[in-house]
Amino acid sequence: MSERPVAISDRGGWCLAAGRPHPALRPFLRSYAGYWETEALPSRMRTLPTRTVVVIINLGPPMFLRTPDPSGGNRDFGSFAAGMYDGPGLYEHPGGQLGVQLDLTPLGAYTLLGVPMARLANSAADLPDLLGPSAAALTGRLAGTPGWGDRFDLLDAYLLRRLETGPVPDPEVRRAWDLLLRSGGTAGVAELAADVGWSRKHLTHRFREQAGLPPKVMGRVLRFERAVGMLARGGDLAATASACGYYDQAHLNREFRTLAGCTPTTLRAEGAEPQLLTSGDAPSPP
């Protein structure tokens, strides 16, 4: 039995188990989040652009995804990876959910999934199509392992092996991503390109290939994600627009219509979360 600390929370009808990955994996993913329903009720929710690539290892019934790119979703999935979005999607489940969610950084996903993240932009792919037969074997082992600590140990071992063999992002792309994060999404492409010593065109091409979206679009997603968080905490629309780098409240509204498919007021009323299933709900990993 694993001695790994796992934080369990019960949010009424849902239970969540959070654990930290191996230290070598932490630059690539935030936490392991196991989830299961104690009341098997159908669910439906809007999905939003965020800074993470969501991987679901599904141990329950299939779920339906509608992605911004219709050719990459609009069907039932078992275990899957959903790439970077720059528009809204939809998730539906009949109930009885059980699985593990991994929130990977875009460049972490590039390494651990081993595919260009441009392939997953605005879409999703079945995990076996990305990882090969090992994905089904991992899912089977997780399903046959009762404890969440032991399940997270299995994930550590599997992902550490992939870390050894996965592609490494260009240092320039990693630097541009770090600068974009530190700026809250406000750094322009010209500024990023000058810093890393590449042309704007070359940076945009390589960044999109490895991170999934062009740097200009990624900046929009980062600003939007911050705005969603501020509004969820009760922030004022005008103050949120100013803090997140929008020209004015009208600019904020336009961006929300593009990225979320609705106004900020509608999104706040829905209580939508930026990420697919568990983000914002899971307890902090020990």
For the largest sheet, list the strands in their spatial order: 1-2-3-10-5-8-11
- Count up the domains: 2
Biggest beta-sheet profile: 7 strands, antiparallel
Give the DSSP E fraction (strand runs of 2 or more residues). 15-25%
Q: Helix segment count?
A: 11
CATH-derived architecture of the largest domain: Sandwich
Rg over CA atoms: 19 Å
Mean pLDDT: 92
Which regions have little confidence, pLDDT < 50, spanning 5+ residues?
A: 275-286
Count of beta strands: 11
How do the helices and strands follow one another from N- to C-terminus?
EEEEEEEEEEHEHHHHHHHHHH
- Please name the fourth-level CATH homologous superfamily of the largest domain: Jelly Rolls
CATH topology name of the largest domain, in short, is Jelly Rolls
The helix/strand class is alpha+beta
In whole angstroms, how far apart are the ends? Answer: 17 Å
CATH class of the largest domain: Mainly Beta
Shape: globular
Give an overview of the whole structure.
By secondary structure, the chain is of the alpha+beta class. It folds into 2 domains: 7-165, Jelly Rolls, CATH 2.60.120.10; 171-270, Arc Repressor Mutant, subunit A, CATH 1.10.10. The protein is built from 11 helices and 11 strands. It has helices spanning 106-113, 127-131, 133-143, 148-165, 171-182, 189-196, 200-211, 215-232, 237-243, 249-259, 264-270; strands spanning 7-10, 14-19, 29-37, 43-47, 53-58, 63-66, 75-77, 80-82, 89-93, 98-104, 124-126. It starts with 6 loop residues before the first strand and ends in a 16-residue tail after the last helix. The model is unreliable at 275-286 (pLDDT under 50).
